[in-house]
DNA sequence: TTTATATATTGCAATATTACGATAATAAAC
DNA sequence: GTTTATTATCGTAATATTGCAATATATAAA
């Protein structure tokens, strides 16, 4: 099958899983870390920095955008991709809430 | 291709992405939440509770075990799957460290 | 307008994931 | 020992993801 049965889970569970899923690729982790360490954030730098093809980086950026973690602005002929800090913090809070309400209670 | 190029990333980036990835499925989120709310934690309950086939649940449990989040003990003819709280907290800390060291610095 | 540069999109091949039925393995109950 | 109940594993089909070359798009520079 290969298809995740989203309909049998709650919206919260699906959202949470989606956040985790988008962060669940080393290229996307690396992209976020790289952008975070720059003063400028130009997509083309990422291609050299990360070592994946331009098309692949563009695809990963799209996924990060899909959950609102990045926003991009046209900056001349390049793009300025930046971390959306409000969204970033909101997602961190949701993940922590999940971690904090899930506890061991046996063995 | 379909194969993630792990070799171009650091071990830390790969580990972090792996944690996110394992948590990136609603069934696994639901399994953790369910186990957390029970006093006992029997796999067979999960099949009814989650609504996926027994083989599928078993597969998801295996993935959660792979990053050490669950440990199972034989309990008669069933299994007692529990959350490994030390590991749980350790992973939460690693994820938070990632979130806290990644900051917005432009736009 | 043409050319050069930067990013996005499309199409495709390879691999991974999800899900499940069938079957094996294990242990309790009889 | 046989049966029953529970979980794991195998095999397989369907779908998703990853990655890249080629191409399209958009803007700046010449």
UniProtKB/TrEMBL annotation, chains A, B:
The yes or no answer to whether the keyword Cytoplasm is present is: no
Q: Where is the HTH arsR-type domain?
A: 8-103
Stored InterPro entries? ArsR-like_HTH (IPR011991), HTH_ArsR_DNA-bd_dom (IPR001845), HTH_MetalResp_TranReg (IPR051081), WH-like_DNA-bd_sf (IPR036388), WH_DNA-bd_sf (IPR036390)
Q: Which Pfam families match?
A: HTH_5
Give the record's keywords alphabetically: DNA-binding, Transcription, Transcription regulation
The cross-references to NCBIfam families, in alphabetical order and at most eight, read:
HTH_metalloreg (NF033788)
Instruction: Spell out the protein name for this chain.
Output: Metalloregulator ArsR/SmtB family transcription factor
């Amino acid at each position: 099958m290969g298809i995740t049965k989203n309909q049998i889970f709650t919206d919260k569970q699906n959202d949470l899983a989606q956040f985790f899923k988008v962060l669940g690729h080393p290229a996307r982790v690396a992209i976020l870390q790289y952008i975070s360490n720059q003063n400028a954030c130009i997509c083309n730098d990422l291609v050299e920095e990360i070592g994946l093809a331009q098309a692949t980086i563009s695809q990963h950026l799209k996924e990060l955008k899909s959950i609102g973690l990045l926003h991009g602005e046209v900056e001349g002929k390049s793009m300025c991709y930046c971390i959306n800090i409000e969204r970033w913090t909101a997602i961190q809070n949701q993940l922590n809430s999940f971690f904090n309400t899930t506890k061991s209670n046996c063995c």
